[in-house]
């Protein structure tokens, strides 16, 4: 029994050492995805049990060099990180652009909007003519594609046309389904919205 105990202890020490070498460490998510009433809109609850646990909002270890307040979007892993500082980051599961609509680069949060109006780009209307009825904008609401919040991304050339925004389609998180924007569950974009400041640097990888 004593030998088994020693072997087990050595095994645990090795696991800890390997974990310490990782850039990102995992933590258990206690984030709430209950129904929320916000500005008169009722945001439905998200069924946590149907979301892969890695895509639930959670604080993780982070040893990157970016300054606190920076937003890092990892399109491959389908994660968005909000750098907290002190070796920590808040991580969110995201949905990303489908094939042919991906993008990478650096931008800044130029504007933040609660319950934004959605106006489909001309190119999107050409691909989906039925969206022409919203060429002047779709009113805010639960079915609006931008969800409860939106962060508008600009670079040196001006408006990139891309947004970090909410979505009622929680099942799309972890998948490549959008037209290039980065989508989060409504409860998550509300959390990010409260943390991120106008002017925040956004790095999309």
Can you describe this structure?
It contains three helices and 14 strands. It has one domain (29-204): L,D-transpeptidase catalytic domain-like, CATH 2.40.440.10. Residues 1-24 have low confidence and may be disordered. The chain has 205 residues and is of the alpha+beta class. The protein has helices spanning 2-20, 122-127, 186-195; strands at residues 24-25, 36-38, 41-43, 58-62, 71-74, 79-85, 88-93, 96-97, 105-114, 149-155, 158-167, 176-178, 182-185, 201-204.
| Number of strand elements | 14
Quote the CATH topology. L,D-transpeptidase catalytic domain-like
Give the helix tally: 3
The figure for the number of domains is: 1
Shape: globular
Overall pLDDT metric: 84
Give, in order, the helices and strands: HEEEEEEEEEHEEEEHE
The first-level CATH class name: Mainly Beta
Which secondary-structure class do the elements indicate? alpha+beta
Largest sheet: 10 strands, mixed
Q: Which superfamily, in CATH terms, is the homologous superfamily?
A: L,D-transpeptidase catalytic domain-like
Separation, N- and C-terminal Cα atoms = 50 Å
